[in-house]
Amino acid sequence: MRALITGVSGQDGSYLTELLLDHNYEIFGIIQPGFGPGCLAGLPAAGRVRFFEADVTDYSAVSDAVRISKPDECYHLAAQTIVTGVDEFATMRTNIGGAHCVLAALAQQAPECRVFYAGSSEMFGAAAHSPQSESTPMLPRSLYGVSKVGAYSLMAYYRQERGLYGCCGILYNHESPRRSPNFISRKVTRGAAAIRRGEQNELRLGNLNAVRDWGDARDYVIAMWQMLQQPAPDDYVIATGVPRTVTDLVDIAFTAAGLNWRDHVVIDPAFYRAVEAIPLVGSAKKVRTAFGWAPTREFAATIQEMVECDMQRPSAQ
């Protein structure tokens, strides 16, 4: 089997690469020009991946990657996730235009290829109820959420009108030691580690009452792969179903570092963001019923592992 992964150098892409190699796949990966192997750097798996440097919004480059790799499966993970301070038009081009390029190239060059698209809980946005399921109306409240809904709609079109085998995993927050420092989970674990090592004295955060559904990336890439092994394509919410606050995250991380978070965390209004009236917590009932997927890693263990990793870094920055 041959797999093409966009965003192969990120957290999810690197774990998915290792999983597929364990299943004897031949792996091809698309990386942003000039960014290198990212999370795969220094890992044995990197030497077993054929990389294409290509911007996912460049149809010609993406088409060439599809033509050369001849994938049986494609995992479209590449996206611009950080919107604050970034050109919003670039976000739309990357997240919607990039998905369009990938889907169009597959329809043209590899119509039998099975496609996974990485959706997001932010597609639900101002949800009317919690937990959310596949039938929950999508009412995004962020540009990132809007872009993800746009790409999801494109994939649905290619599945229904063009005959592609396309699945969307609506992924809730998922963490690991490979998580980017741009996310709150990593900001907290790196901050706790830096304070423990005497590199800083405080960590400034926003609303500690914000609620998220946090899982582990290593569980979530298993769900991605399992989706493409099913007889027919479908969309699935991938989540733990357990609501947790930022306070829960902070308490676990600082305890793992041997600290009392109340001595170091400063609430800073500059970091406040709009909090959903209805928390974004997912129901994975459909995926559990369809093929038995369920999270296996405990949230506390994941956060503790992240802190341990950050404690070993030369610098928490």
CATH T-level fold name of the largest domain: Rossmann fold
Distance between the terminal alpha carbons, to the nearest Å? 39 Å
Could you say which overall geometry the principal axes of the C-alpha atoms support? globular
- Summarize the amount of helix as a percent range: 25-40%
Could you give the order of strands across the largest sheet? 3-2-1-4-5-6-11
> How many strand segments?
13
Strand content: 15-25%
CATH superfamily of the largest domain: NAD(P)-binding Rossmann-like Domain
Number of helices: 9
- Main beta sheet: 7 strands, parallel
Radius of gyration: 19 Å
Query: Which regions are unreliable across 5 or more consecutive residues at pLDDT < 50?
Result: none
Could you say which structural class the secondary elements and strand pairing correspond to?
Answer: alpha/beta
CATH C-level category of the largest domain:
Alpha Beta
